[in-house]
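Quick log. Single chain, no ligands specified.
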Amino acid sequence: MLFIGVLMGALDIAIVGPALPAIRATFGAGERDVSWIFSLYVLCNLIGTPLMAKLSDRYGRRPVYITAVVLFAAGSLLVALAPSFRVFLAGRSVQGFGAGGIFPVATAVIGDAFPPERRGGALGLIGAVFGIAFILGPLIGGLILPFGWQWLFLINLPVAALVIAMALQRLPAARRPEQPPFDWPGMAALAGHLVLLAYGINRIDTAHFAQSLRSHGVWPSLAAAALLGLSYIVIEQRARDPILRLRLYTSRQTIIAGILAVGAGAGQLGVVYLPSMAVAAFGVSNATASFLQLPLVIAVSVGSPFVGRMLDRYGSRAVVVPGALFFLGGMLMHGTTVSALPEFIIAGMLTGLGLAALVGAPVRYIMLNEAPPAERAAAQGLMTLNISIGQLVSSALLGALVASRGGGVPGYRSAFLFVAAIGMVLMVMATGLKNRAEEQATMTAEGGRRAT
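-> predicted structure:
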């Protein structure tokens, strides 16, 4: 049930790509308008993640998870029936907001339902969903698109109904008995911070990075985002039940996990440039370049469950350090030595195996072990936010690097070398994680709390 729900949300990102020309033709939208199809989804996902995660900790997993799925389905229906592009974008916003609650709540349920020694395997399967989604998404889109792009979204309705029916039967509905006032000021400050940060970063002109930062469309948004971020910290220190408990970042383990999440999100954006690199370096078509990503995606899909099992057996340090080394090696190859398609494929596979050990299961595994049970969903939401912020910042920096070298192969190689440097930092940081014995001591202490 959790697998199906997460797959539904992940597919909706990958499945939209093939439908973009048809959507543009239906509404007469331009290139800049189409970018909002993804931007609004991401923005509302960023806001929905901490809110849904916190509500899940307060009111129980079942009602919040079902609410998230209902919102996602309602947004899908609104998109499919949209009479105008504005209504279409409104539907995408509702979809993104609902999807923001699906993944962190599903991860928190794993922490509630699985004993510590089996969490890694379960998280690995959930992490593999995203690799599967990027394989199946374009294929499903190509099969359904001849019947009308609307069916790409209408297909979510029966899937959502199935997930809701299963959730009503299998998810616990327990809630915390005492409920302090909800932290609406903190939620408002956090939402404003995220919206302004994402808006400011998206407005940066990567071809003229420094000049763009000084423009009226960028620096006021980033400055306001910084002020709201500071305001949020002050508000949360006074709140009785804050949206995201910053005190979760009081141990070495959680601080490193947060840094790993930001860095992994930043590194993940480097993969976006691989098809463009293939086109520029080897002269292949855009379609062929997309297929050349399949080895990377398959490596993520196969590697994620394997990483989960290794987490249960050997702990986070023993998994993340070599994973960062794989990622570093793959990106170094892309940035220096790749000159033929076989090398490109090998580098992609190394990168995919590294991503499997950096994005998804490991950082969430760490937070499940470190966060108290009453705050598991909020902790998972915090990890999701860190990954998203890393992606947002990296999108601007990498674009600026590519543009500064005039694009083409030199520009992409500069971007990959920058991402490789991030991989080096992550590998060094990961050496500070707890060893297996220390993690088992934490799990034993949690087992004692469960028994009492």
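The chain has a mean pLDDT of 81.
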